[in-house]
Design goal:
8 helices, alpha/beta
Length: 236
């Protein structure tokens, strides 16, 4: 993708999404990020968007393309979670997680490919998770949504590949973010002891892999799941 092309990162106001946005901005791309509530302070083109609302997504992308140009790279990162054992899950929590993580990601991808197909080039990159393949206690619904992204990405990859558009999934392991910082020490120790590299990842390490998938070096990679998990999920 051209170094001054337009990149859209959903959920780009913090954590992994912000690191990804910063990496593309450093490389000269025009970066737009979406947020739902917490408006970021960093200097990006910002659009307020709710991935659970198709109209909100359409309006956000229309605004980006009107002001920055056609989308070339879309990183679908926005998500939510609420850990709970399966028998304690409330329907409302399940519906929110599925509607945000899976349906929301599909909504963004569905709208984003329009200009990519027209221009015969583009990159769609879903941010999945190692738990989508490995599973995790208390994360049955979250893991289901991340596993679902693989089927969504591979199906879309088959639909748009002939138009020069690639679709891939990056599956991080445990990353140093506000979300993992809230884990207690015993949980953190269990995670790192289960990870062959013996540590969590930095958000910038995830961003580097996303940046690679958007490069010309990755032009023949599509429908792939790229684990960035320190070996935690190897073989899955």
């Amino acid at each position: 993708m051209s170094s001054n092309g337009v990149v859209f990162v959903t959920g780009g106001n913090r954590g992994i999404g912000l690191a990804i946005a910063q990496r593309f901005a450093q490389d000269g791309f025009k970066v737009a990020i979406s947020y739902r509530e917490q408006k970021p302070a960093d200097d990006f083109y910002m659009v307020k968007a709710d991935v659970t609302d198709s109209k909100s997504i359409d309006e956000a992308i229309d605004e980006i393309e009107k002001n920055l140009g056609p989308l070339e790279v879309v990183v679908i990162n926005a998500g939510t979670n609420k850990d709970a054992l399966a028998m304690r899950l409330e329907d409302s929590d399940m519906e929110q997680i599925i509607n945000t993580n899976l349906m929301g990601s599909i909504r963004v991808a569905r709208r984003s490919v329009k200009s990519m197909i027209k221009n015969r080039k583009g990159r769609i990159i879903f941010i999945g998770s190692v738990v989508g393949m490995l599973g995790s206690p208390g994360q049955m619904v979250y893991a289901s949504t991340k596993a679902g992204l693989i089927g969504a990405a591979r199906s879309l990859a088959r639909e748009v590949g002939s138009r020069g558009v690639t679709v891939n999934v990056v599956a991080p392991g445990y990353v140093d973010t506000d979300m993992t910082n809230d884990l207690d020490e015993a949980r953190k120790d269990m995670i790192t002891s289960s990870t062959p590299l013996g540590r969590t990842a930095s958000a910038s390490e995830i961003a580097g892999v996303v940046r690679f998938l958007a490069s010309e070096d990755a032009s023949y990679i599509t429908g792939a799941v790229i684990p960035v998990d320190g070996g935690l999920g190897m073989g899955h």
